[in-house]
Amino acid sequence: MTLQMLLLQANAQWSVASILQQVNKSSSASLPSHNPVLQPLPTLNINPENAQEQPKRKFPCKICGSVLSRQFLLQTHMRIHTNEKPFQCKHCPKAFSDRSNFRTHEQTHSDEKRFTCRKCGAKFKVKVYLTRHVKKCDA
């Protein structure tokens, strides 16, 4: 069974764990069972200070080809393909696949405006909103 077939099979939402399990069990020619999704590709990273070769592990996505530097980043990346969103907002129906985006979103529900523009004094709940404002304010 190919990975595309696994993804298209059923209308149910797949979890990262279940898709990795299916891919690793697969015996198809396109996804040999001896080559699991989370197997790193060896590369070399040259350190300019001592010019010694240091092995650096890379984790390729078997679905889209993106290469990530850490296994946990690959697992988080897989949520793009599975549409898994484990971080649910308690205040609204929004859910997020990434903890960082979830935490940023949580700030929008706060009454506290912690970020202030130094030029005009405008206050913002989220730092990104201030950053966007400063670009306009400085222009």
UniProtKB/TrEMBL annotation:
Q: Record's GO cellular component, any one?
A: nucleus
What GO molecular functions are on record for this protein? DNA-binding transcription factor activity, RNA polymerase II-specific; RNA polymerase II cis-regulatory region sequence-specific DNA binding; zinc ion binding
Q: Where are the transmembrane segments?
A: none
Enumerate the spans annotated as C2H2-type domain.
59-86, 87-114, 115-139
Pfam families associated with the record: zf-C2H2
Q: Which domain of life is it from?
A: Eukaryota
Nucleus among keywords: yes
Entry's SUPFAM superfamilies? beta-beta-alpha zinc fingers
Localization annotation? Nucleus
Q: Which SMART domains match?
A: ZnF_C2H2
Q: Which UniProt keywords apply?
A: DNA-binding, Metal-binding, Nucleus, Repeat, Transcription, Transcription regulation, Zinc, Zinc-finger
PROSITE patterns annotated for this entry?
ZINC_FINGER_C2H2_1, ZINC_FINGER_C2H2_2
| Keyword Zinc-finger carried by entry | yes
The protein's matches in PANTHER family, at most eight in alphabetical order, are given as: KRUEPPEL-LIKE TRANSCRIPTION FACTOR, KRUPPEL-LIKE FACTOR 15
Q: Which family does it belong to?
A: Belongs to the krueppel C2H2-type zinc-finger protein family.
Q: What is this protein called?
A: C2H2-type domain-containing protein
What is the scientific name of the source organism?
Steinernema carpocapsae (Entomopathogenic nematode)
